[in-house]
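Structure in, sequence out. Go:
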C-alpha cells in the first residue's frame, strides 16, 4: 500500500509515501470559532470528543472553526495527516507552521518536516461557507424561497496521523 499526496503547489506531481508503520486517530479536540472578519481571533473554546457536524451546535454560524489537539510521535522519517472529511476548506498547522490548505478530498498533508519527537500541536482551521448565514437571513422569507438543505460543517471525519520510523 502507498499513500499518495499532491504537493501544495497544486501541480500534477505526486509524492508517494510508504505504508505507515504506526498510526493514531485524534479524537479529543479543543474547538473554538470566529467569524471571517475576526480571523484569527477565536473564541468560545469547548472540548469535543469525536467531532461531528458543528451546524447542530451553531446552526446559524458561518466563519472558521479551529480544532486543536496534541499528538505524540517518536522520531520518524515520514508522516502524513489525513482528515476523513470536512465541510469545507481545511488549513493544517503543525506546531504553529502551516502544512497547507485543502479545498476538497483528499484532505491529506505531508507533515514529515514539521513533526518532532514527542508532543506536537495539531491545529485545523476549517472555513465554512455563507450557506448557514444566508439560510438564517431567509427565515422571514416565504417557505418556497427557503433553502431547506443545509450542508454539514466543521470536522466531519476522523483525523489520522500515520508515520514511518
Amino acid at each position: 500500500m502507498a499513500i499518495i499526496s499532491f504537493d501544495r503547489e497544486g501541480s500534477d506531481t505526486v509524492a508517494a509515501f510508504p505504508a505507515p508503520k504506526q498510526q493514531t486517530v485524534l479524537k479529543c479536540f479543543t474547538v473554538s470559532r470566529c467569524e471571517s472578519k475576526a480571523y484569527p481571533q477565536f473564541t468560545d473554546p469547548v472540548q469535543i470528543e469525536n467531532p461531528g457536524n458543528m451546524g447542530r451546535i451553531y446552526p446559524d454560524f458561518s466563519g472558521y472553526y479551529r480544532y486543536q489537539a496534541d499528538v505524540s510521535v517518536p522520531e520518524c522519517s515520514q508522516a502524513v495527516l489525513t482528515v476523513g472529511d470536512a465541510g469545507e476548506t481545511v488549513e493544517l498547522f503543525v506546531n504553529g507552521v502551516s502544512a497547507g490548505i485543502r479545498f476538497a478530498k483528499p484532505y491529506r498533508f505531508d507533515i514529515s518536516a514539521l513533526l518532532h519527537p514527542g508532543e506536537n500541536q495539531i491545529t485545523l482551521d476549517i472555513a465554512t461557507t455563507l450557506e448557514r448565514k444566508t439560510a438564517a437571513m431567509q427565515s422571514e422569507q416565504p417557505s418556497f424561497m427557503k433553502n431547506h438543505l443545509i450542508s454539514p460543517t466543521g470536522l466531519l471525519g476522523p483525523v489520522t496521523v500515520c508515520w514511518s520510523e
